[in-house]
Amino acid sequence: MGADQEHLEVTVWRGTAVGGRTETFEVPAHDSQTVLDVVSWIQQYADPTLSYRFACRVGMCGSCAMMVNGEPRWTCRTHVQKVARAGKVRIEPLRNLPVIKDLVADMDPFFEKWIEAEGVHHPTRTRADAIERIDPESAARVEANTGIECINCAVCYAACDTVAGNSDYLGPAALNRAWTLFNDAKDAGKQAVLDAVSGSGGCHNCHSMGSCTHYCPNELNPMAAIAGLKRETAKSFFRRRRDA
Questions:
Q1: Under a CB-based contact definition with an 8 Å cutoff, are residues 157 and 110 in contact?
Q2: pLDDT range class, residue 106, cuts 50, 70, 90
Q3: Other C-beta atoms within 10 Å of 106: how many?
Q4: pLDDT tens digits, one per residue of 151-183
Q5: pLDDT band at residue 4, thresholds of 50, 70 and 90?
Q6: So what's the architecture of 7-105 in CATH?
Q7: 191: which of 67, 135, 178, 229 is 20 to 30 A away, CA to CA?
Q8: Per-domain residue ranges for the chain?
Q9: Which CATH class, in words, describes the domain spanning 108-243?
């Protein structure tokens, strides 16, 4: 976008994935303008029926994630001047998820994959027990810490071509969560996690293309987490064969 650009040509997805279409708006261009600013302007001044999702506007909640010129991004942290091409921007709902309406993707399948991956805490103690002391410098705790900043924005899920081609695949976010729990000394479900992620839609479906890591706005590395799960599930398999 040139410095003297006064307007943007913004193409936005409208409707659902089945009966949808694109619609183009002319939006005033401003300095330091984000993609979320553009979407909000359209809803406030051009078409109040436009549906989209956002909350914090400062890159903490992840709810404003959308496809921008074909790439998944947090729209609140994406400046127009970095993504506009000849003054044009295309905005669509996140890929690999059902579309509820316009720019709003249905997140249910994304979170259902977390459950399938046993991405829920399995406590080692009850409320009546003393709090377990954890060494923050231990290798397992350091490894677990690498993935805990995931905020469930589904950018990695939208970026993943394996998800696009295999609806059963658990996806990078759920597998990243599984790896975090596997390394958490306070989680008692290590074998349950390995069993969950070694199935037909599990970690071994990953082709290690790296889109999840490339696009993660929090600079996490789901691909490394998935590689860790591949190693541990393989070890678990051979241990069971040995002990059978």
A1: yes
A2: very high
A3: 15
A4: 999 999 999 999 999 999 999 999 999 999 999
A5: low
A6: Roll (3.10)
A7: 135
A8: 7-105, 108-243
A9: mainly alpha
**Residues forming a β-bridge with 89:** 10
Q: Which helix (H) or strand (E) holds 171?
A: none
Identify the CA nearest to 13 among candidates 105, 95, 92: 92
Q: What are phi and psi of 140, to 5 degrees?
A: -65, -40
Asked whether residue 17 carries a pLDDT value surpassing 90, the answer given is no
CA distance 21 to 135: 54
Tokens 């046993």 identify what position? 118
Instruction: Give Cβ neighbours of residue 19 (< 8 Å, ≥ 6 apart).
Output: none
Q: What is the dihedral of CA 49, 83, 211, 191, to 10 degrees?
A: -50
- Burial class, 129, CB count within 10 angstroms (exposed 0-12 / middle 13-18 / buried 19+): exposed
What global pTM score does this model have? 0.93
Q: Among all chains, which residue has been given the structure tokens 């377990």?
A: 132
In the block, which residue shows the tokens 């459950």? 115
- Give me the residue label for tokens 């994406």: 78
Is residue 166 within 8 A of residue 173, CB to CB? The reply is: no
Alpha-carbon distance of 17 to 107, in angstroms, equals: 14
